[in-house]
Amino acid sequence: MSGIVESAGSGTVRRLPGAVEGSGQPAGDPGPGPTVRRALLDAALEVFTERGYTDAGLGEIAARSGVAVGSLFQHYGGKRGLYLALWEEFREEQERRTEATLTAERGRGVDDPIALFEAGARAYLEGAWDNRRLGGLLAEDDGPPGFDTLRRQWDRAWVRRNARLLRVDERRRAGRVRVSVLTTVIGGAARELADCGDETEAREIVDEVCGILVHLSTPPR
Asked: Rounded to the nearest 5°, which phi and psi values hold at 198?
């Protein structure tokens, strides 16, 4: 999962067939109530985390959620819909967190692109720690068919937006490579945070990575 620095809400990310934006639900479905949706997603996260996407069973997810299998299918269409809904939830929360941070920094008069990049990266990494269970699941190479393509497309969108945030000339290959490396560093750190069980160590990782990002963000003279 790549690092998020600025909202990619305006970017075009194709969705897998059968899912609608923000819910992972089958198209045309009005959506479950919040309590049912939360129960289904929480149970899906538990089972996906314990067994992996491939080996997860809808019967177990339904049993843990207390929702009938038929209702699960009605709302999400199966495992893929549940997984995509979890991904949407993670994406949207990370976007909200980083965009709020950038808005606050700009409101304080911060205009330096490297300072904004570091602030956004820190917000993303802190979100990765807070949501480490879900982030760790999504970083695994065990998702629904087509998910890797969707994730790569989203990653490329983040690289482009990070380039604009850093005011890098995307026409120059060296600049594009530098931003791609920075985004990859954030993504790698987020995966490490997903495996970290100690908050003090997690904060150390965030501080260390942000220092590295500031160093790497500085253009060569």
From this structure: -125, 125
